[in-house]
Sequence to fold (760 residues):
Amino acid sequence: MKKERLIIGDMHCAACVANVKKNIETIDGVSGVDINLLTKTADISFNENKVNVDKISNVIENAGYRVLEIVRDNEEDRINALNKLDDEQKILKKRAISSFIFMLVLFYVAMGHMFHFPLPEVFDMMLNPIMFIGIQFVLLIPIMLINLHIFKNGFQMLFRRSPNMDTLVAIGSTAAFIYGVYNFVVAFNLTKTGDIAGAHNVAGNIYFESAGMILAFVAIGKYFEGRAKASVTREISSLMNLTPKMTTIIVGQEKQKIASEDLKIGDKVIVVAGEIIATDGIIVEGEAFIDQSSITGESMPVEKSVGDEVIGTTLVKNGYIIFEVTKVGNETMIAKIQKIIEDATTTKAPIEKLADRVSAIFVPAVILIAIITFIIWMIMGKEVSFALQMAICVLVISCPCALGLATPTAVMVGMSSGAANGILVRSAQTLEIIGKTNTVFLDKTGTITNGEPKVTDVIVKNSISKDEFLVLAYALESYSDHPIAEGVVSYIKETIKDDEITKLNVESFEQIFGRGVKATVEGKKCIAGNISLLKDEDAYNEEDSIIAGSLPLMEDGKTVIFFACNDNIIGSLALADTVKQDSKEAINWMIDNQTDVVMLTGDDVKVANLIAKEVGIKNVYANLLPQDKDEYISKHQNNSDITMMVGDGINDAPSLVRADIGVAIGAGTDIAKDAADVILVKNELSDVARTIRLGKSVMKNIKENLFWALFYNVIGIPVAAGLLVPFGITLTPMIASAAMSLSSISVVLNALRLKKAKWL
Fold:
């Protein structure tokens, strides 16, 4: 099965989307079609043995649309695609400006007498009605030619029984034009018979200015709508634009500038303060503070040194680094982020199905309402000009665009804003489910806690100072590669400056599996380990004060390391996996917002309960195997709970898949990330709360957009049809077309509010 992304021109509304989708789905071999009106893209899955992309393109073009570009998974195609959309926007701008200029002159001639604007006598309606009508006709023709695509596309879709927004505009402006031409002929004949007064009366019912204003306002509306949509799509394209064009690499002993796109895995890249890192890699020399806000949303620069990973598009604030390239092209984090967003924005949230169903019948229904409106006013004895005006207003005030844009604009802004803050959501459907989540399951290690042991307590004999004890502990543990030893060494380096740690002479170092280490330090036989090692080395004394002081720590689930020299215990260090700084606040927010929080962990019950108590979780399940976690989530789903699982390890993968929403957190394994619906770039639990807020904010925005789009049409169409005529209120086609354009723009602008929403 193959998948291609096509950019399709001339798609303007939800009816266009439905038409393109319907035509593609009729092709034998096509298995799936996802279309995004905002980006004008169609993701098409098909069987290569039955159909190819050329045949699909032909079907699309035969349906009345244009295939602008086939976008494959590389940067060059993405740039070409964006250029195509930019070209489309330039065309819209030219149409809008030229239409507006002719419309202003047409308005001045047609309506100037109402405002006492000066006008040459030759064009005066009272003195020369034929010239008055004729100049309007001459000014209208350029506007119609500039917007000829609306007529071609609109009537083409009508004849194919797939009417769209262009169909409504084309019918409305054509009806006004034909009626105007008819009255032009009538006025001309009246003038020939000498009935100037009759010709003057007819000149007052010419609809050339309405036809011109309908087209001009649509052109202007499409331009501004395009500008608003461009600011949304720019959110995605700007990610790739952060990559520098040129990069400095080290070849032998020399520096060499090359294009960033030519980087290869294994290249050594040097980056100094003020420069942007071109791709992902691992630091092999130097240290620097790096601004990662473009990827993670972190406000403060992060200190990085040898062995640390660096991410493409991040900025070196100070210092310098040399890093070895580990990923290029589509494998880099920034490329994967963009791919996730692009894929996600072509998917549809379930709520969008409502808009799709409405859009499928919307345009035909509007045409029928316009015809009924005309007939009713004629039956009621109104003049043809009035009945026609009402029918035209119905056609042009209706706005399928707003319906079609309601969901994709909100989804795309939400996705891109989330990505800019380190939250990657895979699909629009995921966003909708996130907003309904009521139960969150949290793994303990690496999710609630830091996932690595840290020293929490130090107990030292009175016969030795704390610093002396720590120096001895450093001498023993610095030779070990055990994670516990790494935690001890890290703590000592933080407590005593590295250059102030006395380097003791260590000989005969030996690591004893499951117990600890022993060595000769400055001529003394020293050990560091658990009680079993103390007993093996005859250093255990049940009444020792260090043993007595350490037992409560062990009962709390902490790991205690005892240190002894020449068979005498001199101190102990207790280590535990500590809670992340933001975990308690994040969990409290979830609980305060009617979300049940449950801990699922494979760790010991005692340790799990201590952590749960610290962060405020009441529901704890410990000593679990991966299948046990899966089972607990299933039970909640059977009770109709909308579940979210947050984890970072291989053992979490099954439960990430089982939950309605799987969230892989920061430092998680690739397996966990592959299984997840949401990836949190940062290793912070507070981003889980932000993810929930993002989901709720996007869904609220979509509902607002759909409400106003539907409300606008439900109110606008009856008013346009003449519902308020008994109260002396009527719409003109000019006002109706302006209102139609504004409705689409307002939907897009409302979605853009998500960029500054409170979810952050």
Remarks:
- The CA atoms of residues 157 and 380 lie 32 Å apart.
- The longest helix spans residues 75-111.
- The first strand starts at residue 2 and ends at 9.
- The mean pLDDT is 83.
